[in-house]
Amino acid sequence: MNPESEQIQVLLADDDVGFCELLSEYLRNQGFEVSAVHDGLAAIEQAERGIYDVMVLDVMMPKADGFRVLERLRANQRIPVVMLTARGEDIDRIVGLELGADDYVSKPCNPRELAARLRAVLRRSQPNSAEQTSLRCGDLELLPASRSVRLNGQAIELTGAEFDVLRTLIEDAGQVIAKEDLSRRALNRRLGAFDRSIDMHISRLRQKLGAHADGTPRVRSVRNRGYLYVAIE
């Protein structure tokens, strides 16, 4: 599926019916196909059908909040998720990213910005057969064509955003990358003054990849500078 040319199947989960109707109308005019649900359990049920390309997920919903929905999905789903968070609620953004959200937009949101975010996360999540076959760094192998990762030959499940952050680090392994540059190159977004999205993606990568065999951290933070992937051959 090409996010620029084919109709994108969007699952919109928000308990505000009026907001969903307005947002759905805008997205449909932009070429998206939108299905809306209004509680967390319905969101889980629909997402697990596996027919959607991307999900827009509000934090505050009845029956199961957005965090519970995301946690359930990340146990067995790789669908890209854009969280809707209350403006100024940093903790919602942090928790969402910790649980594996690919991106977030603050409410009340600009529909045009949301549409751009949806296309961006889809571009990051789509395999590209024209890309190089593999990118290796020690015991870690990235396969850009399938957007998959292997550690000592074992598959590691990453979200689209996590894959792009890791790929950027591996491409410059051993070199410090400023958080602002990492956000721009990997996520295609400017890093706000209090934006911790890169920190959260790094935290999840550390959890999933662990340390090198000798105990050396794979991803090291350099105070006031950024992050680097520690290359050990």
TrEMBL record:
InterPro entries xref list: CheY-like_superfamily, CpxR-like_REC, OmpR/PhoB-type_DNA-bd, Sig_transdc_resp-reg_C-effctor, Sig_transdc_resp-reg_receiver, WalR-like, WH-like_DNA-bd_sf
Domain OmpR/PhoB-type: 132-231
Annotated organism of origin: Solimonas terrae
Positions where 4-aspartylphosphate occurs in the chain: D58
UniProt cross-references to PROSITE patterns, sorted A to Z: OMPR_PHOB, RESPONSE_REGULATORY
Cellular localisation: Cytoplasm
GO CC aspect terms: cytosol; protein-DNA complex
CDD domains on file: REC_OmpR_CpxR, trans_reg_C
Main location, first listed in the record: cytoplasm
GO molecular function terms listed in the Swiss-Prot or TrEMBL record: phosphorelay response regulator activity; transcription cis-regulatory region binding
Record-linked Pfam families: Response_reg, Trans_reg_C
GO biological process: regulation of DNA-templated transcription
Protein name as annotated: Response regulator transcription factor
Segments of the chain annotated as binding DNA: 132-231
Highest taxon listed in the record's lineage: Bacteria
Keyword Phosphoprotein attributed: yes
Record keywords: Cytoplasm, DNA-binding, Phosphoprotein, Transcription, Transcription regulation, Two-component regulatory system
PANTHER family according to UniProt: REGULATOR OF RPOS, TRANSCRIPTIONAL REGULATORY PROTEIN CPXR
